[in-house]
Design a protein that fits this description.
Length: 468
């Protein structure tokens, strides 16, 4: 590793253990001083700026993409250590948008294709909502929090769809995405008090999330578990060592389950099983060439670790974890409340219905960007957890065009991807991203990032001869 090369060195195999140790230490030091995290963030930006101008123009798009993959995780880490304003609270939205625009400028000579056309159409359909505010109270902060996530999804897809990579590069992006997840895991683990001191109720637990939003922390811990699960399945060593990867996979699962925020963990399982579905379709001779062997050998260990993690965590929480995932609350157990869909989804269903009522009243143009939380008949003032309902309420009929465009570009890209492993990765990234918008909207970098990654074009190469 040398100056002007930090981000690119994250994916190099021989550096895996060194970077793992570094990010563990960063998590430990982050509990002592936020300025350690702030310093590392700005050092990466300075180092990357130097490398950007030093490297050849042909390599800059891949470098920008790698920088996006790594730095956007600073968003949640900065929130955890209270680094604002040095690391802005909405850093992920600002940085992602800026870097994608830089990438688009670099790749401005890229041949215009059907994915670009459909995606630009989606961006055009977003624009009318900026000129509508039926509440009369929307601020710029509201706009950033609500609409920038959707804009970033479209701009991210636009940039990443101009990038062509080999399968090994797509897999290698797992490392820079996972390393800061390790830092967040270590930080939340150290900040978690002795479990005997925690009274596990049947709601989200802030004591196991570094005293920050359990939904957001659970989402990123779930991402970490998903990435390490993918690594174990593909025999791709994120840390460089099998047992250490197993340890982190287990650690992400347990810490994520301890948050009692279900969305992140369910997303992990969903993403892994989607990937396993595609991998299972590989013929035996192709698995042999990739050194994957019998699918049972990589399916059973992952299922075993998932199961053990749940039972261990359920034991540590005196059985409350199972009740939480069954949708029970103190009210339902006492018989004072019915266990309906709204109880199970922690009021998300009521917010969803409120958004649908707004859409019914304003079916063409919607209520305007970020206005739904002020006009919703129920849970007024609360930001929607479900991006789909927020989008429908605020964009009206245009929202269906936006959604259709996003699904269409995904279908186009996956259809032209021939490598089954690559196809499995792209689809699992997209499924995890879409699922996340149903429990955490676009509060974190995760949905724009994963949807953007699912849009890269895979370079055709000799079938199944890539060694991961």
């Amino acid at each position: 590793m040398r100056v002007g090369n930090f981000v690119t060195s994250l994916s190099i195999k021989k550096n895996a253990l060194s970077w793992t140790i570094f990010h563990i230490v960063l998590g430990v030091l982050g509990t002592l001083s936020k300025f350690i995290v702030i310093f590392w963030f700005y050092w990466i930006l300075l180092d990357s700026s130097y490398y950007f101008f030093k490297t050849s123009k042909s390599k800059r798009p891949i470098f920008i993409a790698t920088l996006i993959v790594y730095t956007c995780s600073f968003e949640l880490l900065g929130r955890l250590v209270s680094a604002s304003p040095f690391i802005p609270y909405e850093l992920g939205k600002y940085l992602f948008l800026f870097l994608c625009l830089v990438g688009l400028f670099i790749n401005r000579n890229h041949k215009f294709n059907e994915v670009n056309f459909v995606n630009i159409l989606a961006i055009i359909l977003i624009i009318p909502s900026f000129f509508i505010d039926l509440s009369g109270t929307v601020s710029f902060k509201d706009i950033v929090f609500n609409i920038f996530g959707l804009i970033n999804i479209c701009i991210g897809i636009l940039f990443f769809s101009t990038i062509k990579v080999r399968l090994i590069q797509l897999v290698n992006w797992i490392k820079p995405l996972a390393f800061l997840c390790i830092t967040i895991l270590i930080y939340t683990f150290i900040k978690t008090p002795d479990l005997d001191e925690i009274e596990f109720a049947l709601g989200a637990n802030f004591q196991t999330t570094g005293n920050f939003g359990s939904n957001q922390v659970s989402t990123v811990l779930g991402l970490g578990a998903f990435l390490f699960g993918i690594g174990l399945i593909l025999k791709f060593r994120i840390t460089g060592y099998f047992l250490l990867d197993v340890f982190f996979f287990f650690g992400f699962l347990v810490q994520g389950l301890l948050t009692f925020s279900r969305g992140g963990m369910i997303g992990t399982i969903l993403g892994l099983f989607v990937f396993l579905y595609y991998l299972y379709q590989l013929p035996a001779w192709q698995r042999y060439k990739l050194n994957l062997g019998n699918p049972i050998k990589f399916i059973l260990p992952v299922i075993f670790i998932l199961t053990i993690s749940f039972f261990v965590t359920n034991y540590l929480t005196q059985g409350n974890l199972l009740l939480r995932y069954m949708g029970e609350t103190a009210g339902t157990l006492a018989g004072t409340k019915d266990k309906d869909l709204n109880q199970i989804t922690t009021n998300r269903f009521d917010i969803f219905k409120g958004d649908m009522e707004l859409y019914a009243e304003n079916p063409i143009f919607g209520v305007g960007a970020a206005a739904s939380k002020y006009l919703r008949p129920t849970h007024t003032g609360m930001v929607a957890h479900v991006e789909l309902s927020r989008m429908i309420a605020e964009h009206g009929a245009f929202s269906f065009g936006i959604l259709l465009a996003l699904l269409l570009v995904l279908y186009i890209n996956v259809s032209k991807t021939k490598n089954i492993i690559a196809k499995g990765l792209l689809v699992s990234f997209a499924i995890l991203a879409f699922y996340t918008t149903f429990h955490a909207a676009t509060r974190t970098f995760m949905s724009p990032m994963l949807l953007a990654l699912s849009m890269v074009s895979l370079i055709s190469e000799n079938k199944y001869k890539v060694k991961l």
